[in-house]
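Weekly modeling sync, notes
Attendees: S.R. (lead), two postdocs, one rotation student

Agenda item 3: backlog of single-chain predictions. S.R. asked that every request posted to the team notebook include the full sequence so nobody has to chase files. The rotation student volunteered to paste the first one in as an example of the format we agreed on. Action items at the bottom.

Example entry:
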Amino acid sequence: MKRILLLLFAFMGFRASGQDATEIIRKAEAKMHGESSQSEMEMKVVRPSWERTITFKTWSKGTTFSMVLILSPARDKGQSFLKSRNDMWSWNPTINRMIKMPPSMMSQGWMGSDYSNDDMMKESSLVTEFTHKILRKEQVNDMECWVIELIPTDESSVVWGKLVMWISTKDYFEMKSEFYDEDMELVKTHLAADICFMHDRNIPTRFEIIPAGKPTQKTIVQIKNIRFNLSLNESFFTQQNMKTLK
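Predicted structure, as returned to the notebook:
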C-alpha cells in the first residue's frame, strides 16, 4: 500500500508540474504578445563580410493573424507579409505579385536573416501545439528562470523537433530559447536582453538569434516601440490591405 501511495503521489506531482509548465508558457506568451499588438522594429543581419539593416512594422492578433510591412531599405520598402489562420502570403509591389507561401517555407530564414518565417509570423502556438515539462531552474542574466522543454504534439504542424525555453520566475520574461530539428540537433539559440517599459509593461527589447556552429553569424532585433491589446479586427488582415499598408 505504501508503494502504491508513493507512485500515486509521484504521478500527481508529475501532472501538476506539467500543468504548471503550460501555465508558465501561457503567461510568458501573454506578457510578450498580449491579445494583439502593433510595433516598429529594427533588424540587423550580421555576416562575416557584410551587415544589413531592415526596419519594419508589425501587427498581430493572437497567433491567428499577423501582418508585417517593410519600411527600409529602399529596395524592399513596401513589401508585406500576411498570416491569416493557416495561410501565409507575401506581397512584392516592385513586381506587383502576391505569393502564397507553402508550409515548407516556415523554417526558412525571413528576409535573409536567422529568424525563420515561423518566428516572424507566429505560425506556431507555444501553448496549444506543444506539450510542456519543467526540467530545472537556472540563472540567465542574473535572473532565476524555469527551464522548460516543449515537444510538438502529434497533431501540430511545427517545424521543430523540440524547444527548450528559459522563462524568468518573477516576470515571465522569455530570456533564452533553443530550437532543435527533428534529429534533436541544436539549430539556433535566441537570447533576450534590455528589459524596458513599453506601453504598459516591462519586456525584453533586444534579441539575438545565433545559428548553431556559426559563431560569426547572427541576427539582432530591437523593438523601437510597441503597443498592446489594440482594437484590431480580423478584417484588417486581408490581402487587399497588404497592398495599402503605411
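Discussion: group reviewed the output briefly. Residues 1-17 have pLDDT under 50 and may be disordered.
Action items: rotation student to repeat for the remaining queue; S.R. to check formatting next week.
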